[in-house]
Amino acid sequence: MIVSVIGLGYIGLPTAAIIASKGVKVVGVDLNQNTVDTINKGNVHIIEPELDILVRKVVGDSFLSATIEPEKADIFIVAVPTPFIGNHEPNLSYVKSAVKAIAKVLEKGNLVILESTSPVGTTEKLIEWIKEERPNLSYPEFGNDNFNADISIAYCPERVLPGNVLTELVENDRVIGGVTTNCADQAKDLYSIFVKADCLVTDCRTAELSKLVENSFRDVNIAFANELSLICDTLKINVWELIKLANHHPRVNILQPGAGVGGHCIAVDPWFIVNSAPDESKLIRTARLVNDAKPNFVLDKINLAVKHIGKDTSELKIACLGLSFKPDIDDLRGSPALSIVDKISGMGFLKVMVVEPNIYKLPDDLNENLVTLISSDMAIKVADIVVLLVGHTPFKSIDLSSLSGRKIIDTCGIWS
Fold first, then answer.
1. Domain 2-212 carries which CATH code?
2. Out of 265, 294, 317, 320, which one is annotated catalytic?
3. Catalytic one of 96, 188, 211, 326
4. pLDDT tens digits for 97-142?
5. Is 381 a catalytic residue?
6. What CATH number has the domain spanning 238-410?
7. Cα dihedral 317, 297, 228, 331 sign
8. Which of 24, 244, 278, 327 is 20 to 30 A off residue 85, Cα-Cα?
9. How far apart are CA 49 and CA 45, in angstroms?
């Protein structure tokens, strides 16, 4: 058996490596030549615990290789981005391009699995897109288990936590959604090779919505915490103490507020539901608006700090701690911290310093003429304002006495 994984990013590469570690030949496909070359040397282009060790081994054992163009295989797994465009409308162009590329090498008996988080109905669209390229093949019909198609198609969303991907790929339950029962059964056979937890079989539409609902649940609950932080700020109450006390109730478990919500899932997926059912998703939409507005609250607090200091912004130095969308990873996708720093860089400060222990250079989004990547000790030493944006573990051990005399804005509660 040969498995082809299309898209070698934060999900595709770990998935390819895990499958390859089970003695299955895996060919990864990515449009970035540098990514392909890096992997073929046994190295990785992303930070994920233990991934470098695993990739080095499976490449060395000749079970994993990478290429730019899709090749013939038995199973194709599509793991490419699905961002939104315009008025929060799903952008499926990456998925469409990927399936049209693999359509050229499809053969009778192949299985195509979509892992990318997608709106309900996307898996069935795969059939339309592939059929445009390969009308000579037959394809499954949703819910029609009596028809034996040449190509099987399923939807099996990832549900892993960055920073613990390799463990969760194996230990988390997996939802297996087929266009037909036969498609789902074939996909289950693959995932059963490496998933130790339950593989839960359903149809592709239910699987698609399940993934969106999981992340929307998180988003709604984070929005509640973020809204509490706004209320507490108005009422002069410590939100961190409030949540700690409230969580002593046996049936209450309020999450922690922050600078906003980022990443490739929680900040995006709820909009897919809103787009599909706008009149019925009022709470989900409101949660998104609450979380998207939180960075503006942080910026208001910075402006207030400048006012309290009583100097012109051009005379002040500001240190921003954290750029990633969550603690202890290097992933900057959709990061509210990155958005906040970008806006700070245009506010006219004498110096804008960024501390991000998980990266080695600033992303292209930030102007290096306006922003400096620096160590926490150096940044805090000269800063007038210190803004904690991400609760990275190293920041928890900062000597609080070193913050004395500086305006502190703690969006994570680790110094509060």
1. 3.40.50.720
2. 265
3. 211
4. 999 999 999 999 999 999 999 999 999 999 999 999 999 999 999 9
5. no
6. 3.40.50.720
7. negative
8. 327
9. 12
